[in-house]
Design a protein that fits this description.
Layout lengths: L6 H25 L12 H18 L3 H28 L9 H4 L2 H16 L6 H6 L3
């Protein structure tokens, strides 16, 4: 069992890692890094890449964390409902309720990121962050 006194540091690591993963998803869409295709200019994927890169970087360093995490959470909610449920599940011919199962519609990442960022948005940056330094709490 990890002692409760370590919770602030563990939470900061949680925020940093989720921000970094989101940042990498954005770089993948914008620049084709890490084996991903470059999103077409003006596409929904390119807009998602911009949000993921910017919000991921902000969450990772802990700057404007609540706002960036809330936007990231909203983008992932849209990704789940619009892309994974409306397009992918419908394209696979999945009916209700199977279309809502993230493992069947490919929306596992979107679901987990949505709720991780929602948690970060409610909790804030934590101890290892630019926000904490700006408040003089680090």
């Amino acid at each position: 069992m990890i002692p409760a006194r370590h919770a602030p540091v563990i939470y900061s690591l949680f925020r940093i890692v989720f921000g970094m993963v989101f940042f990498f998803f954005g770089l993948q869409k914008l620049f084709g890094w890490f084996g991903g295709p470059v999103a077409p200019p003006g596409s929904l994927q390119q807009a998602a890449g911009v949000v993921e890169t910017l919000c991921g970087a902000l969450v990772m360093v802990g700057l404007f964390t609540r706002q960036a995490a809330f936007l990231a959470s909203g983008e992932m909610a849209i990704a789940f409902w619009y892309i994974h449920v409306s397009l992918i599940a419908a394209g696979k011919g999945l009916g209700f309720p199977a279309m809502l199962v993230p493992h069947l519609n490919g929306g596992v990442d979107a679901t987990m990121l949505c709720f991780a960022f929602l948690y970060i948005a409610t909790r804030g940056a934590g101890v290892w962050s630019v926000d904490a330094i700006a408040r003089g709490k680090s």
